[in-house]
Amino acid sequence: MTDARLQGADEATFIAAVRAEDTARFALLTERHRRALQVHCYRMLANYEDSQDLTQETFLRAWNKRESFDGRAALRTWLYRIATNACLDFLEKRNHRTPLPAGLPGGGSEVRYLQPYPDRMLPEDPHESAVARETIELAFIVAVQHLPPRQRAVLILRDVLGWPAATTADALELSVASVTSALQRARVTMREQLPDRRLDWRTPATHELSDDERATVKAWVDAHERNDLDGLLSLMREDLRFAMPPDPGVWVTAKSAMDAWVSGGFGGPGYDDWRCIVTTVNRMPAVVEYLRTPDHPVYRLFAIDVLHIVDGKVAELTGFPATDKPWLGLPPTL
């Protein structure tokens, strides 16, 4: 059976469920799209908790608008339309959800509301998962936040999901000309934000880490557990970019990042007994840090560092406090 016929069966079953007020069947048909919709909301909002909330809001709106579904569009498309507009409504009420100046020379801007996204919550469909590879990486998520919300929606619908201009225009209640213009402006901004990255996001990219990336992550863990600050410094590019949202500040250069860590106590008494585990978030290598202090017998969850590695060196490092993010599924102690 072809995808089109399967999709048609879904639409017919959905319409029948609506007519029968069958809430169980309605939930079954919409729930299978949860992961894809949540990733979509995350691209729009850069925040895992908000993406969860807005996905739930999408299902509530879908139920309230169920009579409006006539089957001319795919159920999936209809749900994406609702999710996109729910995110736009959210952003309209949240004026603080824009990048802020970093406050440091050369620091650019920072996204303090940024949160990591657990790989285990990505869509299970292999093609969707492959396409998500670069559009879930932190660099893309941060870059897209620099777009005004409606441009952001246009770029994601057109260049990530591959929607036609007319479908995008209908979803956002815009003209096709307005969608085309918004997409052109959005692409210019994305090229400025991601000058060294490819911009063909619909082409699947590999999921596997390269041998160089694996070696760098292993060396990073080894140096961290030995409390070898010089070793860590040697694994960073000189022009490293470091941020740790929601804390303010973006540090540019490896030396300035290391100076900031040391001034915060890293490597000194009470911050010198570490164990690490390796995982992935946002389809990127990540090192989870556990700290043992003199007054505690076990290593306790401390932070997670997400690494972007280029030619065997860490080019970008985004650290997140880990204890307040249960959705990452990390063990609290080692």
From TrEMBL:
SUPFAM superfamilies: NTF2-like, Sigma2 domain of RNA polymerase sigma factors, Sigma3 and sigma4 domains of RNA polymerase sigma factors. Residues 217-316 form the SnoaL-like domain. Keywords: DNA-binding, Nucleotidyltransferase, Sigma factor, Transcription, Transcription regulation, Transferase. GO terms for molecular function: DNA-directed RNA polymerase activity. It holds the Pfam family Sigma70_r4_2. Residues 30-95 form the RNA polymerase sigma-70 region domain. Residues 140-189 form the RNA polymerase sigma factor 70 region 4 type domain. InterPro entries: NTF2-like_dom_sf (IPR032710), RNA_pol_sigma-70-like (IPR039425), RNA_pol_sigma-70_dom (IPR014284), RNA_pol_sigma-G_actinobac (IPR014305), RNA_pol_sigma70_ECF_CS (IPR000838), RNA_pol_sigma70_r2 (IPR007627), RNA_pol_sigma70_r4_t2 (IPR013249), RNA_pol_sigma_r2 (IPR013325). Belongs to the sigma-70 factor family. ECF subfamily. Interacts transiently with the RNA polymerase catalytic core formed by RpoA, RpoB, RpoC and RpoZ (2 alpha, 1 beta, 1 beta' and 1 omega subunit) to form the RNA polymerase holoenzyme that can initiate transcription. This is RNA polymerase sigma factor. It comes from Pseudonocardia aurantiaca. The lineage of its organism: Bacteria, Bacillati, Actinomycetota, Actinomycetes, Pseudonocardiales.
